[in-house]
Amino acid sequence: MNIKRAFRVWQRHWTVYTKLYKSSFALNFAEPVLYLTAMGFGLGAFVADIKGVPYINYIAPGIIASSAMFAAVYECTYSTYVRITFQKTFDAILATPVNIDDLIAAEMIWGATKSVIYGTTIIIVIALFGLVASPLILLAVPLLFITGLIFAEISLIFVAKAPGIDSFNYFYTLFMTPMFLFSGIFFPLDGMPEVVAKIAWFTPLYHIVNVCRSFAAGELAAPLYDILWLLAVVAILAPYPFRLMRKYIFK
Amino acid sequence: MNIVSARGLTRDYGSLRAVDAIDFDIMKGECFGFLGPNGAGKTSAMKSIYCFMCPTDGKVTVFDMDVTEHASEIKARIGVMPQENNLDPDLSVLENLVVYARYFDIPKKESLPKAWELLGFVSLKDKADVKINQLSGGMKHRLLLARSLMNNPDLLILDEPTTGLDPHSRHSVWDMLNRLKAGGMTLILTTHYMEEAEKLCDRVAIMDSGKIVAIDTPGNLMTAHGGNLEDVYLKLTGRRLEY
Q: What is the count of structural domains for chain A?
């Protein structure tokens, strides 16, 4: 893998994104804001404070994490698949000095970039709503990048193994949605049967939610363990997208 | 001087042998054609040359470099015009060229004038800001040709450059390729059009079921086997070329 050549592909995605962002950006931005207002203000009016904070303040940092997840997952499942299959973008780029590993690395880094873009937008929005207690939340940004990489890795592994675009819904419904609901964004997991918390521990979203919530509250040291988890998993998964996508592209 | 040299080039897809231990050399400045029906192994042979896929067996060198070890260096000096349209639909005509040049590390101040020059060459200057899906099939072909020339390649590889084109568009592509040839560029193309091979190629390799059954100039082949290239093909393989 050559980082400069990967950057050339990243630049292509950036060029396209800056051309089209008005249409896609509004949508990705609208959904988390809808959750925040519906759950936070709507449901929040009937829910007591959780661990001493109003309900909307409780869920707001979690929305940062979930929109970072959705951004990377949609980018590296649906968009990557369209580029490979329908647009033949990979075929075109592979005829240039860019090699397959550069290309896969670029997909991952681009997915993580989208996580940072969407996560940061939510940080700004909830800060404007007055829902963030501490500027330490800015330290979450590099960790959104790491989390984006993890979700990009998982997504690319899935695309390489999936029989086709129709099966992507299984991935969204059976993997992403449960994670979204049971990662501690909307309620603390210690109120659930212990098995839920145990399963959640194996998901990346759970840990980045902890990171965002702690930083938003100004607790710097609390999520050290979650950060180590994220760093370890991003490294452990790293070889697989390359190995499986190589096989998938040259089948 | 040989630009490309292949010895025992073999390519398998699972249990299917698409290219079966072929040998060939392609010299600087010549136009070399792979002739044969669909499935004869032409495209697979070409994909090995432009490092899209590694040979299963055998050795291929391009510019005296092994394709399995120096893919990026080789690809930097090659232009590829694919059989299928793979222009970037998210970008305009001009952006397609400039973004493509970026993969070769060509800065915008060089690629922009080059892109305009090539749009002139393929008569698409007035379409510069148009989206790809608004181009006709013939225009897309010409744009693919322009894109393949963005890096000033020493070797141009064309996979069925005129398949699916109407006669007028086909002649305009032939005219452009002849001009590139006259400028000293080395060309490799695949085709199943006899007329195309006769008009453009200095030498042709006739392929059948993954093997090369003859390599020579179209003139020599026709002298040896009679009639036109169509007859040559029939005589060498016992089959007609299927369109």
A: 1
Q: Which residue positions in chain B have pLDDT lower than 70?
A: 240-243
Q: What does the alpha-carbon distance between residue B128 and residue B119 come to, in Å, rounded to a whole number?
A: 8
Interchain CB distance below 8 Å, B90 and A2: no
From B52, B102, B151, residue closest to A11, measured CB to CB: B102
Question: Which H or E run includes B80?
Answer: strand B78-81
User: Closest chain A residue to B90 measured between Cα atoms?
Assistant: A16
User: Which segments of chain A have a pLDDT < 70?
Assistant: 28
First to last CA, chain B: 34
Tell me the domains of chain B and their CATH numbers: 1-72+183-243 (3.40.50.300)
B152 touches chain A (CB under 8 A): no
If you search the block for the tokens 């493509």, which residue do you land on? B100
CB A87, CB B86: distance < 8 Å:
yes
Q: Report ipTM (2 d.p.).
A: 0.92
The pLDDT value given to residue B58: 95
pLDDT score of A23: 74
pLDDT in tens, B11-30: 998 889 999 999 999 999 99
pLDDT at B242: 56
pLDDT score recorded for residue A113: 98
- Give me B5's structure tokens: 């040299």
State the pLDDT at residue A236.
Answer: 98
Q: What's the confidence (pLDDT) of residue A41?
A: 85
Boundaries of domain holding A121? 3-249
Quickly tell me which residue has 């299917």 as its tokens.
B16
Task: Using CB atoms within 10 Å of the CB of residue B69, give its burial: 0 to 12 exposed, 13 to 18 middle, 19+ buried.
Answer: exposed
Q: With contact defined as beta carbons under 8 Å apart, do B186 and B28 qualify? A: yes
Query: For residue A97, which residues of chain B lie inside 8 Å, CB to CB?
Result: 72-73, 75-76, 103-105
pTM: 0.92
Strands B78-81 and B155-159: what pairing?
A: parallel
Chains A, B: CB contacts under 8 A, how many?
A: 68
Token pair for A201: 């521990």
Longest Cα–Cα distance of chain A, Å, equals: 59
| Inter-chain touch A15–B91, beta carbons under 8 Å | yes
Query: Quick one: closest CA in B to A88, which residue?
Result: B86
C-alpha span between A183 and A207 (Å, rounded): 8
**Which of A94, A103, A248 would best serve as a mutation to test chain B binding (most B beta carbons within 10 A)?**
A94
Q: Which residues of A touch B102 (CB under 8 A)?
A: 8, 11-12
